[in-house]
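User: Can you help me understand a structure? I only have the sequence.
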Amino acid sequence: MRDNGRMSLFRDDGIVLRTQKLGEADRIITLLTRGHGRVRAVARGVRRTKSKFGARLEPFSHVDVQFFARGSELVGRGLPLCTQSETIAPYGSGIVTDYGRYTAGTAMLETAERFTDHEGEPAVQQYLLLVGGLRTLASGEHEPALVLDAFLLRSLAVNGYAPSFDACAQCGMPGPNRFFSMAAGGVVCAECRVPGSVVPSSEALVLLGALLTGDWATADASEPRHVREGSGLVAAYLHWHLERGLRSLRYVEKG
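Assistant: Let's start by predicting it. Here is the structure, written out as tokens:
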């Protein structure tokens, strides 16, 4: 695989995260794949109006893609080519026609890309989270803001930043605990409270705990004001760990 004179075909399934124009008819496609993590590849001719190939390689699409790479491209120099693509699930058709779903989905794609910094490194848990999140979002089964916050919290968790919404994040004191600290990693007790801690409502903390664990009955029953409050905490916590916010979050509708 590391012989620079070698040519190789490899296949993987992935979610299209974004596309960029290249030349007059080509695009650079960024995907999060099951086996190869984040991959950028060139898809030739896909911007031509009659290209069925290009229609399959749009953001939110779950696709099976064949790549062609030379040896130098396999070790990070240059981009492989997308030579074939088959649709596994066109999640975009259930997302792009609804503003709430579209903006939430765009934030999910941006999050997945931000958490997969290094191309070619497998990130299976992040990939599976994204597939499941887009499937749920496209179905319309839950409010888009709830689906997004559940995805953000679980993405944080699989990347080692799981927040605590019950036991004290510092000493482990059983909850409920009142104070929330970004730096401490979630709720803290009165003894462990640090400057900058906030005091969210107990309902918002219950909601966020439900989203993290998949308790949709509790999450769906939450009042819009608690959804907004919880979303603010999630956005701040994500910003803390990514060191800069998501551009797409500013467009997301809150409950």
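Now, to help you interpret it: The beta strands are 7-22, 26-33, 37-43, 61-70, 81-90, 179-181, 186-188. The first helix runs from residue 52 to 56. Let me know which part you'd like to focus on.
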